[in-house]
Amino acid sequence: MRLPKRPLHPGPRHGVTNEIPDAGLTPGFFRAYDGVMNTPTNPRSSRRRFLRDALTVAATPLVTGCASLPFLRKKTLLVFGGTNFTGPAIVDAARARGFEVTLFTRGKTNAELFPELEHLIGDRDPDVGDGLKALEGRSFDAVIDTSGHVPRHMKASCSLLKDKVGAYAFVSSMNAYADNATAGADETAPLAHLERETEDFRDFAAFGPLKVLCEQEVTAAFGEHGAIVRPGLIVGPRDRSERFPYWVARADRGGEILAPGDPNARVTLIDSRDLAEFLVELVDRRVGGAFNAVGPEGGQPMKDILAACQRAAGTPSTLEWVDADFLLSHGVAAWSEMPLWLPPDPGLVGFHTRSIARALAAGLRFRPIDETAADALAWWRALPEDKRVFKRAMTATRERELLEEWRMLRA
Fold first, then answer.
1. Chosen CATH of 75-410 out of 3.40.50.720, 3.90.550.10, 3.20.20.70, 3.30.750.24
2. Of the candidates 205, 276, 350, 377, which lies 20 to 30 Å from 13 by C-alpha distance?
3. Three-state SS string across the chain, please?
């Protein structure tokens, strides 16, 4: 029996082992083997003896009733969140990679999901209820954090876990950057600064700067094994933001669709499942540092995104491209009432053009936009009727009125 000569992945800290790729043997195998016999690489061991002794080690759990040999233990992952939008995709991706997943939530959002997993109930705020007590005395191979918004909360969880996990990935935001005025900016671009003391992350002016302070807590606690992932616009199944769902639902309704501004304007989108797989990839390999996780380099033309929505719907429809100045003069709110649309602005040229070179080198990959559109629409169609409503996006009446006036102006 020839042992694989492939190098080991760097193993997590604190005695946690990691797998030899594709081999099924771990560093723990060699340590367990050393404890009862000659090492497999000892030239004095005969092939026959090695095979006999290896089988003896493999059978040990059956003989002793002990299932805790290092090379038999599954990798463990703690997910902060895990039941809302990106969380379920992270759980699926992690389980596909062999992780045993534990969820830490407040037990309020989609609490019925994943009944087969371990759920730890608490609060990110250590001063609310039981806070982080459910995590005391626990250790994990890795953590993926989707719910960190307040630096004080982050400091508490990072302090508790810093000596008990091997890798930590934090989902930050593109809003962590100070501005969007530079096309192609990478992760070294200036970061936002909190102008006034606040923990209200729902305040848009504070959201990005608070994420920056949270990033700093992760880096301070986990160093080179702390990953900071800054996504842009996340889309796909379970997206309740109204931005992408508006367009798949609008295409599903069919007819004449008001399409905003320049058909060739670039937009970057990342499917929540691609983001999830990237996060799991980072913690599985214990890769740290900052990464922009937006859509494909340079974005996609708005016309291509809307065309993908039309193809997914299969409902007869046409796009009527309406000038940006007309929309602005009629008080159409960019991004909210008119989802995905940003009017031309020199201060926003970098919003959809951030460099993703580091993320691509670390394993970020993208599925086709048609797949994202089809799956997002399938999820939308499956919702109860009372849930298939938009609170901010353009209504059918408003769209019809604008299209009529646009046609009259051009006649």
1. 3.40.50.720
2. 276
3. CCCCCCCCCCCCCCCCCCCCCCCCCCHHHHHHHHHHCCCCCCCCCCHHHHHHHHHHHHHHHHHHCCCCCHHHCCEEEEEECCCCCHHHHHHHHHHHCCEEEEEEECCCCCCCCCCCCEEEECCCCCCCCCCCHHHCCCCEEEEEECCCCCHHHHHHHHHHHCCCEEEEEEECCHHHECCCCCCCCCCCCCECCCCCCCCCCCCHHHHHHHHHHHHHHHHHHHHHHEEEEEECEEECCCCCCCHHHHHHHHHHHCEEEEEECCCCCEECEEEHHHHHHHHHHHHHHCCCEEEEECCCCCCEEHHHHHHHHHHHHCCCEEEEEECHHHHHHCCCCEECCEECCCCCCHHHCCCCCCCCHHHHHCCCCCCCHHHHHHHHHHHHHHCCHHHCCCCCCCCHHHHHHHHHHHHHHHC
